[in-house]
Amino acid sequence: MGCRSVHLLLLSLCVAVSSVPIDRNEVPQETKEEPQEENMDTGLYYDRYLREVIEVLETDSHFREKLQTANTEDIKSGRLSKELDLVGHHVRTRLDELKRQEVSRLRMLLRAKLDSTNTQSLQMDHASLLKQFEHLDPHNQNTFEAKDLELLISTATKDLENYDAERHEEFKRYEMLKEHERREYLKGLDQEKREQEQRRLDELKDKHRQHPKVNAPGSVDQLREVWEETDGLDPKEFNPKTFFKLHDTNEDGVLDEQELEALFIKELEKVYNPKNEEDDMMEMEEERLRMREHVMNNVDLNRDRVVSLDEFLKSTEKKEFNSHKEWETLDMKQVYTEEELQRFEAELRDKEEELKRRAVALNQEQEVLKERGKALEAQRREYQQAVLEMSNRQKGQQPEDAAPPAGPNGELHFEPESQKQDKVENGTDILVEPPQNLPVHT
Q: What is the rounded average pLDDT of the residues 275-283?
């Protein structure tokens, strides 16, 4: 099993490193650029973390060698994870850093989730909350260990296996929402306009169905059409091995999911045109997914999410390969039942009622906040008035340490202590005559 096959088991899509073994001792006659693989998103919420971990691991020569020779069972059983103990120190340091960054990102997601659900008052227990994420060990949030690699591999494998099913479910909900909106739109029209609009919609649907025959993906008719129209070769000289090599665009020995989907472009163009009102591009992507799944189910024998040359050649020997059966497109079938549509519409009504209740609650909270704002503003004005009155009273009072009164000519007049004492004892405020030995001012 090649290294790229391992990648696709982990990522479903290739990472941006070459999986072709390179002989460093071999000197090529001419310089060739190494094929670059597209850095495409797996759709997983931890896609970046997954890619970065694999890329860092492949910088270690020991781990890369083990990855070259690993098989599906080695990966799924966790035996490959044990090789982490033998990688270089700089690799482990970088992996530790990646894990800390991922934990920090998850904490931010959790806090945002708690804030959005009005549970800010809950105490944040990051260790227990991180258990919701299965792709890392939450008990050790600082270092990347073998258990982290094992969890990352097992979780990615499981999530990727369920990813296509989730996409099908999303498309079904999209189609039901489209039908729900169509019915609601027609309800809002009077009878005459409703009949006119219904006729227009039926005409668009019939126009969409009037397309050329679509060949079953992976059949001899479909591949020969690509061989002739895309590759520009004589259909009578169709050769499966040559076809495989022509469409193994990165020359890694396998056809991955993107290389397979590229083979269906001609068939999809028969049905969908982005310029046509009657053609839905969301349906085209669902059709592409269905075609790829059909080929994988019939050709990918070891379920490693890639097609090897041997698997491809064996598929051309099957009876189904030479079948001229037409592919059943989405316009020939209904992806949901009426019961499913009714349940979906009931969910929409419940969500609408919930939104209305939240809107009422938010309006009530807004009114309460307005009243609180008014009360605070009134209290602020009262405080300002009280501070102003206090300041005015202080300005009107004479300080206790004021200077003694001045005489007729401006000199300071000091009251003898005996006079002060007489005032205190007699309770009077009458000035007594000054002593005879003091000069008297006229």
A: 94
